[in-house]
Amino acid sequence: MSSVRSLPIGLLALLGSVGAAPSPIDAPALPPSSVVLFVASWCVPCRAELRQLEAIIAAAAPIAVRVTPVDGSARTGALLAGVPAERIWRSPRAIDAYLQLAGSLPYAVMTDAAGQVCAIHNCGLDQGATLAMRRRCQGADG
User: Fold this and answer.
1) What is the mean pLDDT of residues 34-57?
2) 9-21+34-141: what fold?
């Protein structure tokens, strides 16, 4: 079974199509050409995901990988201690918008050069799932 899961039917109806995200009008800006990982300390799969961060970065290259903590707790701060500061991206608006879609963590989105979401992953990201997201985005580009 692929580690890239299909979205629930209800979410598909909300989004309008597989892999879609909020409309550009409604969605907060995301960094272009990026994988954004939404994480929290209370999310056990998020911890496993961050232990694989170097493999995720390698699989995503040249696309940047950014980690977005969903809360400001001390425990989440400790979880991010090993993440280089330039990889941490904080956006309360993005957290609010995308976690309403996700419903759970871990959650990751990949953006194209325009900052539009081209792939969504709704379970722990690893090297293989990152490569699958890249293939989906490359397919969306042409």
Assistant:
1) 95
2) Glutaredoxin (3.40.30)
